[in-house]
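Sample pair:
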Amino acid sequence: MRPILVKIKPTSGFAHFLHLVLVGVVLPGAVFALVSLNFVQLAFSIIILSKWRMIAVRPRFWAANVRANSIDLMVGLSIVLFMNHTSSVGIRLGWMVLYAAWLLFIKPASSVLMVTTQAFIGQLFALMALYLSWAAGPVYGLTVLTGIFCFLAARHFLEAFEEPYARLLAYTWGYFGAATAWLLSHWLLFYRGVSLPTLLLSSLGYGLAALYYLDHNDKLSTGLKRQFIFIMLAIVIVILALSDWGNKVV
């Protein structure tokens, strides 16, 4: 007997149109309205509830489903925090439009380039939101959450390449992110509102992802590798040199 395939998402017709409206209009609009009315907890709740399919399976699949949907959750919950952190209606509307674009165009894409973009946005937004809302939190909390976000972003990126050592490499990047957070959280600096751990991990992560992509496709020459390493080191030096070392959270 041939297995019965059940499609969760409609792909055509009125059902597909209704799905796009619910995902791209109703959900971002509801988040915007709830944050504007100061119901931030409800905004968090509807984003989490929108992922109900994660647990609509046997419990043994829950962990894998949570990991698969982690980037989407990181982006959605971060946007709620960004909206809540500003009093400007125009900026909130901008975040709402960006969230709609994420849900309609960026998240559903499956090409290597778009998966890389998803991972980069997920890590960037999650780290920005973490240090924006919890900069004065305990060092161990910042360390653990930074490591988790880095791990999830790396795992999402590496799975696009069917990397056999994806888990090991993701754990390595997560450990590096946690170590960076632990070191810099003792003297937390901000550069134009963005924390130093976010800048460093985003710059280095993007550079390492580019090196991995080129090497995976046999396009990484020795000269190009040296250029990337030099550029990453230069970015790190510039970030450290231009940071205001008087602006800190100890």
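The chain has two domains: 15-108, 110-250.
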